[in-house]
Amino acid sequence: MPHDSGDEGRAPTTDAPEHADYGPANTHRSRSGSRKRRWRAVTGAALGVALVAGGGVAYAWSHLNGNLKSTDINTALGKNRPDASHDGAMNILLLGSDSRAGTHGRYGSGIAGARSDTAMVLHVDKAHKKASVVSIPRDTMVERPACAKPSGGTVPGARQAMFNEAYEVGGPACTVKTVEKMSGVRMDHYLEVDFEGFKKFVDELGGVDITTHRAIKDANSHLSLSAGKHTLKGEQALALVRTRHGVGDGSDLGRIQLQQAFIKALIHRAESIGVISNPARAYDLADTATKTVSADTGLASADKLLGLAKDLKGISPAHMNMVTLPVSYDTQDAGRVLPLPKATHQVWQALRHDRPIPKSATANSVAARTDSPVSAGA
Known about the structure:
Elements: H1 40-53, E1 69-71, H2 73-77, E2 90-97, E3 116-124, E4 131-135, E5 141-144, E6 147-148, E7 154-155, E8 158-162, H3 165-183, E9 189-193, H4 198-204, E10 208-212, E11 216-218, E12 223-225, E13 228-232, H5 234-242, H6 252-273, H7 279-290, E14 293-296, H8 302-312, E15 320-324, E16 327-329, E17 337-339, H9 341-352, E18 374-376
Parallel strand pairs: 1-14, 2-9, 4-15
Antiparallel strand pairs: 2-3, 3-4, 5-8, 6-7, 9-14, 10-13, 10-18, 11-12, 16-17
């Protein structure tokens, strides 16, 4: 795996050059930084596949409980939150942190702490037949509320803060609180994933099929794919979801497109190989996935995750609408993006009222200027 010595998008420091951006600056790009951490939310989709597969081996799920880590979000946030839905609709915040814990320097050294470098709001409709996914760019400037520190005390709020800093100052509870403040949508659950099991999971699936509509070459992520059909094993899959320089405008917005396409491809792969009919394989996949996951206490058990998986089982990629939060480039800072007020209101309003996100909401976003160079299936 390529070594990563950078970590962009963090608060500027004077003594940690590792955090600087790599490659030439572009005044029209959102500089996202480290390439190795944007695919954690993709592993969240991998978890969902594994959980559905686990339905064939429910008897073994009790052994998976010890793999899971949890945070009591409800206690941390209290009662001053958006109202919960009571009609069956559900919102889950999928997070990917950039923690190097346990990696022994394989993904960069001298970098402490963690931030949420990938965030997706998964909205499941009340019938549990369709889903919407809203990706929030990590460099989005938002109003961050005051948050409790995991170690005690309180971090004051900020009128303009980079979205992924919420995780750094207050952990997953602060990120959930920030999303709820910016959206007015209650997060019923959260799932956080890391990258240790990603390559193994993809390899255990036998690879994931994608089609590239044009050649993709990125020296930073070490990805080189010709136009056409490919079956990506773990190493190449990891490179794909890290890639940004070789697609779009070179920002995280293009990388988000790759991640969303990969999630659909992952689900297609699991459906095509009939994971549910192979209990041993299903258990191995679930074991790998749960080892990479942290969740809120409402989800942090194998039985609860299995129940969620059964609820989501009927949602196919064709019924999953994936969008990126509508944004514009910040003219004051080329490395940041700003939400488009009217358009983002439309997106969150649709989720609050359990309606499809209108196409008009994302039409003027800079994220919509290019088509994804990748689609699911080979």
